[in-house]
Write a structure and sequence with these properties.
binds N-[(3-hydroxypyridin-2-yl)carbonyl]glycine, mainly beta, binds fe (iii) ion
């Protein structure tokens, strides 16, 4: 995590031309893994097809892979490290169910909680693209999809501002 250098409880990886990474210096997108220096693997066609169906153009540049085990959670945040703030963010939940909290544009405003099951999709589009959201907890043992238990969330994003036609 920025400043403290403490690890997130969520483990992260990326697919696609750009990956979201975090260290003491802050958050950013970069084309290679921060430790190995290798490019991220490509985004699978099935995920690209889902994006084309639900979002359309431009193409996503990053699929962030979040892995939740052993009480991992994610604090309230906004996805705001992308230049392309007007392009929706699409997420796919797999494995154990999770309590997803979503609010509005103010960090301290009212929120609602949703239970996300394996296979559920969340599309933050329009005004909700800038809404605060987070994962309060994982409901362990609600799915046997992920070997060893846990939850995986895939978020597809456009990072760079698309070239205008
Ligand atoms: C998660 N999801 O479900 C965390 N962000 O584990 C997100 O942070 C998220 O579901 C942007 C759009 C959809 C999301
Ligand atoms: Fe998010």
């Amino acid at each position: 995590m920025p400043r403290t250098g403490r690890p997130f409880s969520v483990r992260m990886a990326n697919l696609g031309p750009l990956g979201w990474v975090s260290d003491r210096r802050g958050y950013r997108y970069q084309p290679t893994h921060p430790v190995t220096g290798r490019p991220w693997p490509p985004i699978p066609d099935r995920l690209l097809a889902l994006w084309r169906e639900l979002v359309g153009t431009p193409e996503p540049e990053c699929c962030l892979v979040n892995s939740y085990r052993d009480g991992a959670k994610m604090g309230l945040h906004r996805d705001e490290d992308e230049e392309a703030q007007e392009v929706p963010v699409l997420s796919v939940s797999l494995g154990d169910a999770a309590i997803f909290r979503v609010g509005g544009l103010a960090r301290r405003g009212p929120t609602v909680s949703l239970r996300l099951e394996s296979g559920d999709l969340v599309l933050l589009a329009g005004a909700s693209r800038r809404a605060y959201h987070g994962i309060d907890r994982i409901l362990a043992g609600t799915s046997d999809l992920v070997p060893g238990g846990g939850r995986i969330n895939l978020t597809l994003r456009r990072v760079s501002r698309p070239a205008r036609a």
